[in-house]
Amino acid sequence: MATITIDGTDYDGDKLSNDTRAQLTNLGFVDNELRRLQAQAATLETARQVYVAHLKKALESETPLPKKEESANS
Q: Which phi and psi angles does 6 have, rounded to 5°?
């Protein structure tokens, strides 16, 4: 295993305990999942923007209800 640097301190990867290695593995998994979810969120946001644009286009051919008159107390 290579040298591991955490918070500016170097560690010999070959001499790390099993628990420390497990925590590094867990951290790597979580970091990968966060990247995957961020990419998925970006994809979903793009899709949402497309759906909103299509909805607005579709609504152009719809007849809206008349606007309600505002009450005098508003």
A: -130, 125
